[in-house]
Every structure is written in C-alpha cells, then in structure tokens.
Design goal:
mainly beta, Pnp Oxidase, Chain A, seven-stranded antiparallel beta sheet, two-stranded antiparallel ribbon, 1 helix, 9 strands
Length: 150
C-alpha cells in the first residue's frame, strides 16, 4: 500500500496577470508580494429592547480589502501607465487581476480572480542613502470581490 505525503504549497511561487489592459510588457507579471486576498463578513450590531446582557450581530454582506501589489520599480511599465491614467486623468478602466499559485513545475495550483480591479494608490519606498535596497513600488487596487478557480 503506497502512502502519499501531502506538503502545503509554498507562497513564494506565483504569477500575477492583468486582463483587459493593453500594452502590457513581460515585467508586468513580476511581483515580490501580493496581499489583500481576504474575505470578511460585515455585520451590524443591534441592541435588543429589555435585554442588556449582550447585543446581536447580524450578517450584512461580504467585504474585501484592497489588493496590494509590491515589486521593484520598473521605469517603463504598462501597469504603471494604467495606474497613471486612473489617478492623474480619472480614466479608470477596471480589469480582472489573476493571482495564480504555482507548483514546482510552474503549473497552476489555484487562481484567485479579482473582479473589476482599478488603482486607488501608488507609492514608492523611501529613499535612504544609508541602506542598499531595491526601490519598491506599491500599487493598491480596489476590487469588487474575488473567486477561487481550481
């Protein structure tokens, strides 16, 4: 009888893709960190008349925080043009963002599909002459919700 050992996937092997944005380059898929793939159930708190020992928490809707993408700064980037168009010109073009977890053979294990994402914030890391670090750009994207594709 053969036994199979399961190992959880590593979090450092992933790919980010943007659908619905023109003029993308190869480097637009490279990111060092992705955060914000979180689902929460929002609740409303209600006090019951005559019942002072506790309050009721009633579910209302799902809530999704911003998707935060970090990478070394690319000076010529299709994603940066998309961000600039949205923030400077208010030319907002929502896109679908796919974050795909990969296995050791670079095959997809699971994909997180963020629907109707658009840029809300862009920043670069601090300039510091006392440190030898890569300049990192951070993009915060608002999105409606995400689904998990297996």
């Amino acid at each position: 009888m053969a036994t199979t050992t399961y190992y959880p996937p590593v979090s450092f092997h992933f790919r980010v893709e943007f659908q619905g944005i023109s003029g993308l380059k190869d480097q637009d898929a490279y990111f060092q960190e992705v955060t914000g793939l979180t689902r929460e159930l929002e609740t409303d708190t209600h006090k019951a008349g005559g019942e002072n020992r506790f309050t009721f928490k009633l579910p209302t809707r799902g809530q999704y925080p911003n998707l935060v993408l970090k990478r070394g700064l690319f000076l010529d980037s299709g994603i940066l043009r998309w961000v600039n168009d949205a923030i400077y010109d208010l030319d907002i073009k929502p896109a679908t963002v796919l974050v795909t977890l990969l296995n050791e053979k670079h095959e997809p294990l699971q994909t997180y599909q963020c629907i109707n994402a658009y840029p809300q914030k862009w920043s670069v890391s601090d300039f510091n002459a006392e440190e030898s670090r890569i300049l990192v750009e951070t993009m915060e994207l608002v999105y409606q919700y995400f689904t998990i594709i297996h």
